[in-house]
Amino acid sequence: MVAVVLAGMAAGTINTVVGSGTLITFPVLLAVGFSPLVANVSNTIGLVPGSVSGAIGYRRELAGQRTRVFRLGTAAALGGTTGGVLLLVLPESAFKAIVPLFIAAALVLIVLQPRLSAWVAKRRGEVHEHRAAAAAATYATGIYGGYFGAAQGILLLGTLGVALPEPLQRLNALKNVLAGLVNLVAGVIFVFVAPVAWNAALLVACGSVVGGVLGSRFGRRLSPTALRGIIVVVGLVAIAQLVF
Fold first, then answer.
1. Helix, strand, coil share of the chain (percent; to 5)
2. What pLDDT does 206 receive?
3. Cβ count within 10 A of residue 226
4. Is the pLDDT of residue 120 over 60?
5. CA 49 – CA 131 distance, rounded (Å)
6. What is the mean pLDDT of the chain?
7. Which candidate, 244, 243, 232, places its Cα nearest to that of 20?
8. Model pTM?
9. What one-character DSSP code corresponds to residue 223?
10. Which residue from 61, 86, 99, 156 puts its CA 20 to 30 A from 224's CA?
11. Closest CA to 211 of 1, 3, 2, 21
12. What is the mean pLDDT of residues 150-165?
């Protein structure tokens, strides 16, 4: 119980700051005896409260993004629904084989984001919001997040950073809301049709709420350069864990 709560706290913190908290809680749930499917669905449900507390902590950075949150939130919810259904009908190996490639591509986008944004601005004369691209990327990431969820936040930051003319901290606030919606809609599906270990989900939830508060408090103080550095390190660790 202590191990699961601490894992939930760590996951809530890292999800709010970067993403990839699933790579902490999922292995812990496996280690204490749950099957991969039960661990996955219980973890998805348990991390929802942490996303809520993290989003509340980032409410200042969410100011002025209400319309965007509604538009992209719809795409995220549809993607999470699709991913949740796929989890129940497809083998886990179907996505796991290409997940490291997705994360690596997202890391490249995050590192190159300042240069890409400057290049786009130079080409167009000013920075524009690519709404269709942002919605498509959010939906695709939502499918992955509803299916497994590891490094969902990194994928969102990498793709939205290219499509939206916003500082990284405001994108991070938006990411917390979208990832939370994906987990929420997938979790609702799992409640009705998947085997949920409610004791594990509750323990993860308790830890993730505290972690979300901690992550928002310390994450918003990081400079864009420092935040990118943390994202890259976490992403490389995620790739190594998934591959090896």
1. 85, 0, 15
2. 96
3. 11
4. no
5. 28
6. 83
7. 232
8. 0.81
9. -
10. 99
11. 21
12. 80
